[in-house]
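Regression check, flavin-adenine dinucleotide case 518:
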Amino acid sequence: MSKTTFDYDVAIIGYGPTGVMTANYLGSFGIKTLVLERDKDVYFRARAVTVDGTTLRCMQALGLDEEAKKDMDVTTALRWKTYKGFEFLRWSPADDSPWGHIDSNMIFQPNLERTLRAGVDRYTKNVDIKFGYAFSSLTQDPESVTVKAVSDTGADVEYRVKYVVGADGGSSAVRGGLGIANEGKTKPRTWIVIDSKVKKTWPERELLTFWSDPVRPVVDIPLPGEHHRWEIPLGDDEKKEDFDSPEAVWRLLGAMDVTPDQVDIEHFAFYNHHIRYAQRWRDGRVVLIGDAAHLMPPWAGQGMQSGIRDAANVAWKLRYILQNGVSDRLLDSYQPERQPHVVKVTASSVALGNLIETKAGLPTVMRNFMLPIISKSAGFKKGLKVKPDYDGGFFGVAPTKKVAVGKMVPQPNVTDSVGKESKLDSFLGSDFCVVGINIDPRAVMTDAQQAAWALYAPRYLTILAKGSTATSADQIVDSDGVLVPWFTQYGVKTAVLRPDKYVAATNNTSLDMARVWK
Ligand SMILES: Cc1cc2nc3c(=O)[nH]c(=O)nc-3n(C[C@H](O)[C@H](O)[C@H](O)COP(=O)(O)OP(=O)(O)OC[C@H]3O[C@@H](n4cnc5c(N)ncnc54)[C@H](O)[C@@H]3O)c2cc1C
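Current build output:
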């Protein structure tokens, strides 16, 4: 007889960076969660090498940013050099990030994943993690999903859950089981990625360097904890087999004057880069996140970070569906929000990759004269970053450049009524917040609007201009002088902020909630 009770509210398949972030969010919301992970330990290969300020902001929401930063190095500088030694670009990542965290940090992915996993250990009451369990299939009906898996001892297990998050990576069995195509292309060029442990350092090792060369370009990456990485494309006539030995790897390193005195090779692997998107990211009660939903080349350092943003996006939606009785149509807003953003960061990654791979190197005029000038401009630094803004989804009106709706609110320091100064998000927490700029937001909302948003149980906060004094717990002062000007430039007096810090609605567009999100 089929079950009528639920074993868990949510099953997360895969415990890589996107799965573990989802487990942290759901754990912190008190949602009964199962994690099925095929492997026994963190994947040993360091793949992602960098995180930005918005990703750290997601970790901050989980109380894990400071712990994670202990294993990170702030990126010193990025430079572009020819093999002959001519440096035609040097760029220090901006430290004036609006997100409350430095915008470019080098990471060692296995260590970051360990920190995130330790974070989930805080939620043993409501999160069960089963290592060595490979997801095998699922079936769903209007009320539930039945998930089947096989343990590493060969035991078949089955769980009935309300929702499934497929975070099982690029070869996703969840995606495959649902018959969802992974559309796009795989680039023909093969890259060798060499990871090492440094024994004896060398001058300027700490600089992330693109070596431009028509024959053998190299991406040269310093990683925290005395790790160092080289990513090198194979030529048109070269095969993986030509390089698949320590001797061949040493020949590649030797050409860059790197010797066995300086590093131990930890491992090397071959990759072809993909540009692929799952045809749909939601199928009934199942959502795909991270590499299961999209794959991009690594050059913009955004693959894992995009997965973390997916986790942040899906987790609060599941929370309001499961705990506040919001319709699960809310999950329909996930792909329209996340996919256009992923497409933009993929395009920037592809453009950077084309520059690195270009066989002739950069045109001399561009390289020697234009890039050094352009790279010093503020616009260049900003242009390298894709803004986190959303183009559509869970919003009162369609986001445009001219409205605050769809934009991520900056994170300056603010001061509360007892004079304590902290980053904005520590006051906003993980709830919906309705904020009024120098005014009680309820004074700007109709009763009907307040009744509609009550479904999301928002907190009401007043943000006072710099120089004011907060006199009650629902007031904060914009002590850095950032928030009031930010809202004012869009003509906003009152705004609804989502848990992921996006502006959902404003008084000068509409504070009504669209019927579909109720
Ligand atoms: C060379 C390289 C450099 C990169 N550099 C960057 C960078 O600088 N910045 C960045 O943001 N990203 C970077 N990336 C991309 C980044 O590593 C990935 O996007 C990220 O690891 C994806 O995370 P995920 O959790 O979605 O998937 P994964 O990390 O693949 O994790 C999936 C998990 O699911 C488990 N699993 C799989 N199948 C099953 C199953 N059937 N049952 C149970 N469990 C299962 C796996 O064991 C694994 O633990 C890089 C990638 C490469 C290859």
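Comparison notes: The longest helix spans residues 334-357. The mean pLDDT is 92. No diff flagged against the previous build.
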